[in-house]
TrEMBL record:
Keywords: Cell membrane, Heme biosynthesis, Membrane, Transferase, Transmembrane, Transmembrane helix
Organism, scientific name: Funiculus sociatus GB2-A5
Entry-linked Pfam families: UbiA
PROSITE patterns named in the record: UBIA
Protein name (record): Protoheme IX farnesyltransferase
Enzyme Commission designation: 2.5.1.141
Catalytic activity of the protein: heme b + (2E,6E)-farnesyl diphosphate + H2O = Fe(II)-heme o + diphosphate
More details: Carbon 2 of the heme B porphyrin ring is defined according to the Fischer nomenclature.
Amino acid sequence: MQEMMVGADVSRKHQNFLQVIHSYYQLTKPRIIPLLLITTAAGMWMASDGRVDPFLLLVTLTGGTLAAASAQTLNCIYDRDIDYAMERTRRRPIPSGRVQSSHALLFAIVLGCLSFTLLALCANLLSALLAMSGIVFYMLIYTHLLKRHTAQNIVIGGAAGAIPALVGWAAVTGSLSWPAWLLFAIVFVWTPPHFWALALMIRDDYAKVGIPMLPVVAGEVATTRQIWIYTLIMVPMTLLLVYPLGASGVVYGIIAAILGSVFIKKAWALLQEPENKQLARSLFKFSILYMMLLCTGIVIDSLPKTHQLTAFVAEHIQTLISAIAF
């Protein structure tokens, strides 16, 4: 009955073509996509030693955008009952009646096909298959199997958000190696503290619709403890790109160490006050900035000019030390 009412409302609620475009744009949850693309870009720059082909960059980021948009649209279709029940999401295109589910499904399929075709023809088949695997994992494993059935949903489901890093590396090299998998692992381990901080803020919404997010099932104390543990695992992991892998250098290492120390400080503060929603909000917002700046650090560190500068500084430091020793 609800579905019939939603479908009947579409023509009434859209007054012009621009509003239709805007509704389909909203289906893709565009605020999420830039964070996925920055990890893709980081993988590309690291894989190419800072010499990314502009056309390949454009193709890969466009393909990644289309794949992410397809996945988010499918998620909006699957979760339309939850979105309708929660005040925060009730005004999204499908529960508000501005887009029919069947139309959204067609839109998602077209986006996915465009993504695969673009990546397969202009990058390589591996990057295209990885992008498609991200859609499948996000929908089948996270949204269908995990989200509504286990408090560990975001832990396992975080792999979907980490796949873009592999797509970026594969687009450049046509293969996957240890640095690519480590970048994947960093994003994977970052996802639980990032998402649980948000879940702490909107715990009541999840409880209302019966989604077993960790704060709902285990409470704030257990959730903040898990955030703390994952943070302590994640920060040292980011430094493994410097040593032993040697995929990034000292500039990235300094950036990662500074960002990691701030993340640890915020996670510790939340651990001391598990019910403080302002601290949860602060950690959530910083976690977004953290990942964006960490990936930016990878890009900056990979640039040839950065290599030249660090080599120049290292040479002069060594000369100074030698002079002092004598």
